[in-house]
Design goal:
398 residues, alpha/beta, Aminopeptidase, 9-stranded mixed sheet, 13 helices, 9 strands, 42% helix, globular
Length: 398
């Protein structure tokens, strides 16, 4: 059985329907019921495909809820596995069609095709993580601080345009400090010091309380604490159980394309000469898939790129193979390369890729109420899905 025939089973309509099914805020504080419904939907689809289904449940310190990573497993559960992963939660006010309904939908369609066409291949585990976004306990504490200081209303909106403007500037300054290799606390302190001449006492106090919340979190310890909680828990359990993982592909915000000039930007510290590309005449036009790997993931990256070049796939890509491991990437301040679940795998020494449309570096509706299904390019997503399926077959049969 050759991969080109198998990938023709991918249906863009199936991908679109999955996005529609889970679209809507899926947030642990404001829409916990919708978050649970998304988990139930993923679980039911895995069962329909005939996969072995497992739920990995965990708690978050200082937060009264139980959360679930949902798994669908093909093959013998005891052998070395290949992972296709996504996350299904969103930020509080976003429908999350692209971030990350696109990743979930592509994962589910990959599972459907592989389950019906390749049931006897090496074990493949599909995992959808929860709590990739912010730690809900920390986010709730931040909201309580802001509300008690009179900075936000009951709808979590800043009460004044000045506060809105200053907090946006603070975030921009924090991002620059993180890119310079500073810790979260140092970044918060820097932004407060630079802006405190323009801030009210309440605004200054809010940033000071934020600094206390993040105290002790380092540039390498934050995954699994401030964000990436679901994948952090999964990787810790996998290492503790000595589980054998051949590699993981993280599907993150991958459904948006644009043919407009200058629709694509790059993270701080990254330039176009660092990429290996295929069919990309202009890297400032956002009509390609980005592939990001660390020094431990070169074979995975090469396999994915090879599949993109198949005649049955033909997917333009830009591949960034960072010649460093997690600690060095974090200490150099390349924070934007660590902003999804692959970071936990990198930290655990597990080969992993992030496959993405680059999120806020291309997608103008990132983390907004406008992140809806009508913005997505389902034909593009189908090509990504084909490349993933072909890659799985290539890697598990090697």
């Amino acid at each position: 059985m050759t991969s080109p025939r198998i990938v023709e089973e991918v249906e863009s309509e199936m991908i679109y329907q999955h996005v529609l099914k889970i679209e809507g805020p899926r947030h642990p504080i404001d829409s916990l019921e919708k978050l649970d419904k998304a988990a139930n939907y993923i679980r039911s689809e895995f069962r329909e495909y005939g996969l072995q289904v497992n739920e990995q449940r965990f708690k978050v310190e200082d937060f009264d809820a139980t959360f679930r990573n949902v798994e669908g497993i093909m093959g013998d559960n005891g052998d070395a596995e290949f992972l296709i992963v996504s996350h299904y939660d969103t930020v509080w006010d976003s429908p999350g069609a692209n971030d990350n309904g696109s990743g979930v939908a592509t994962m589910l369609e990959s599972a459907r095709v592989l389950a019906q066409e390749c049931s006897n291949i090496h074990p493949v585990r599909f995992v959808s993580f929860t709590l990739e976004e912010r730690n809900p306990a920390w986010e709730l504490g931040s909201r309580r601080d802001a509300r008690s200081l009179g900075l936000i209303d009951k709808q979590n909106r800043y009460r004044s345009s000045q506060t809105h403007r200053l907090m946006k500037r603070a975030l921009d300054l924090q991002a620059k400090s993180l890119a310079a290799g500073k810790t979260l606390v140092e970044a918060l302190e820097d932004s407060r010091i630079r802006l405190q001449g323009e801030m009210s006492e309440s605004e200054i106090e809010y940033l000071k309380r934020s600094e206390e919340r993040f105290r002790g979190v380092t540039v390498t310890s934050w995954p699994g604490k401030t964000a990436l909680l679901g994948s952090g828990f999964w990787v810790e359990e996998a290492i503790r159980a000595n589980r054998k993982v051949l590699g993981a592909v993280n599907l993150e915000t991958l459904g948006y394309t644009s043919s407009k000039n200058h629709s694509q930007t790059l993270p701080e510290g990254v330039n176009q000469t660092m990429f290996r590309t295929y069919k990309i005449p202009d890297v400032t036009i956002g009509n390609f898939i980005a592939v990001v790997g660390d020094a431990n993931s070169d074979k995975l990256a090469q396999s994915f790129c090879n599949q993109c070049r198949l005649g049955s796939v033909d997917l333009p890509y830009a591949c960034l193979q960072v010649p460093l491991r997690f600690d060095d990437i974090a200490k150099l301040g390349l924070h934007d390369l660590l902003r999804s679940d692959h970071a936990c795998f990198w930290r655990g020494g597990i080969p992993s890729l992030m496959v993405t449309d680059t999120a806020n570096f291309r997608y103008p509706f990132y983390h907004t109420r406008a992140d809806t299904a009508d913005k997505l390019d389902t034909q593009f997503m189908a090509k990504v899905c084909k490349a993933i399926i072909a890659m799985v077959i290539d890697c598990v049969s090697a």
